[in-house]
Every structure is written in structure tokens, then in C-alpha cells.
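Attaching the record inline, Q. Sequence:
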Amino acid sequence: MKTIKESTNMKAVILAAGMGSRIRPLTDNCPKSLLKVAGHTILEMMISHSRDCGITDIIFVLGYLQEQIKDYVTDNFPEINAHFITNEQYASTNTGFSLLLARDIVAGSSFIKFDADVVFDKTILSQLISCEHDNALCIDKNIQLDAEEIKVIIREGNRVVKASKSVTPKEAIGESIGIEKIGADTAIQLFAELETMMQDEKNHQQYYEAAYERLIEKELPFYALDISGIKWIEIDTKEDFIMANEIFN
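Structure, as predicted:
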């Protein structure tokens, strides 16, 4: 089993290009990742957790109001090795397109991928890093599932069969929370898959999970890490934002 100290060669990729349109007007002049939950920005908690777990090489894929995020990271976290990548097409693309842009800096390293609107207890990240599997998705089994969630089907041994919004709640074991670990060998294959996908413009609106699923269909193993009962929330709406402050206060 990996330890936290052994995670120092691991990178982090934070996808923070989106406009946060569903939570407006809170994001009219502020990126969603810089909204404050319990007195701390979402990004502050994410970076601090990563640093505390031995990850200081962090790649930020930015778009909407990107200069605010660059300035915030530079001013508040001078000790990390921050890489800033711009998705110039952030208004017309999705997370699969954004993740592909991190390819050259990740360069075959293992990495943790974060959606920049997830607030979570540090225990989730420490468990993910120490998980025995190279490729793992954090899954919450104790959650009400609906059409918007990335729902996961697993088979024996917690191996992921499918991870998609199209999975029916009845089929699913739980929700993927937007935090994953990708092994170094898989990273090479993942970016190759994303590159193939993004050659077709109709795939520019695909989520990165579509690439995971294509690799799973090729028998590349991904596993579910059960984080049920540990605090976390994805902030999509104003209601989520209010709930986040209740949970983390």
C-alpha cells in the first residue's frame, strides 16, 4: 500500500475552466472555485489538502475569469509548483477537452484529477492516494441519485464497469464525486484516447468520464474507492452552496 510520503512524485490536475452558469449571479464576477465555503475558498481547500498529502506539482486548466485564479494561486501558494493552462474554448467545450490540455505537463506521471467545484474532507484524498489500485474513482454509495450525477456500475472486486450520467439509478452502486487517481501508464493511454475523441468536434462537449469508459471497454482496469460517510459536496447550484456551508461549518 502506498503511503502519503510516496505521493510526492504524483501530480494534481484541477479542472477550473467552466463559467459556473448554474450558480449565477454568484459567479458573475467570481470563478466558482474562488467562492468561500466556511470561510475558505474551494480552491484553497483543494490546494491545501493536496499539499498536506505531499502533492505540490499542480496543473490548473483555466478559462473563465482565469486571471483571478492565477493571481489567487500565485499570491497564496508560492510554495507549490503551479502550471497554468488556458482552455481558450472554455465556453464551447467540456471537461474532456480541458483535461486533454494537461497532457504535455502530466507527461505520463500518475496524477489526481479534481473537478474544481468539489469541497471535500482531506481524508478522501489521503485514502485515494494510499489506495492499492493505480486507477481509482471516489464513489459515494449513500447518496440520492438522479439524472445529473455520474453514476457508477461495478462488478466483483470493485472494478468499474461503467461511469456515466446515462446509467440508471437502479443499476448504479453510487456516484463518482469528481476526484480520481490515474496511474502513470494509464495516463498515457488516457490522453491518447482523449486526443482521438477531440479530433471530432462533436466530442468537444463530452465529459472526461467518456474517455474512462472507452478505456474500460478495452479492459483497462479502473476501481471504485468507497468514500461513503466522509464529508464532501459538489457545488453546482445556489442550493448546493448553501448546503456546503452547512456541512463544513
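The helical segments are 42-52, 66-76, 95-100, 103-106, 122-130, 184-198, 209-217, 238-248. The chain has one domain: 9-248.

More tomorrow.
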